[in-house]
Amino acid sequence: MPSIFELALGDDFRRLHPMLQQRFGVDTAAGYACVGRGVFSEVRRGAWWTVPFLKTGAFRNILFPDQGQDIPFTIENYPYIDGFGRPTVTFVRTLELTGSKRRRFDATMVHSQRRGAIVDYLGTHQHLATDLALEVLPDGSLHLQTGVQRFYEGFASFEFPAALTGTADLYENFDDARGVFTIQMQVRNPFLGFLFGYRGEFTCTFPALSARGAPEHLKPVREERRE
What we know:
Number of domains: 1
Radius of gyration: 17 Å
CATH class: Mainly Beta
């Protein structure tokens, strides 16, 4: 079965750098995960008025206000079948900050046939969902951009106004000369401007999936059926 990224990109998936094809080819049928370890050369945030916005996101592992340089991190992409029978991939990034402090970005992704895109559930409880626009660039790198954010909780379901959210642009590539993956991301708000971003590099291992599937600590606390 194709991975969720193969489904979303179609024939363009083969235009990705071969190492990115392996990285984004994780699927339960493929039988492997992708675990990256590296260093963010820079993690930065916007002006002081963005801090309350970022602190709010920290409660559910969506954003955080910390910044710094040369920060070790891991990124764990494990495929599994969620409680609604959907092929799902974890995108959990863990940063090791000074003073034994850790921060996490949690996300889980599914491919929605109805929406014709990958749906990215942000945070620990899948309260926020956004469609991802994927683009393979001429150099074989991948550009990922988030769309409108939707909120789901109980009977509540609505789209956030643009003024209250941010658009994330993420770029991943592979540097053949140094044998490392490169990554950079920024989140911008149409009124506040730059909110948060990072850049760095990492290497990957591709461990075989165990019978238990994805580790439980990488899965969301609750799952949301609505896409």
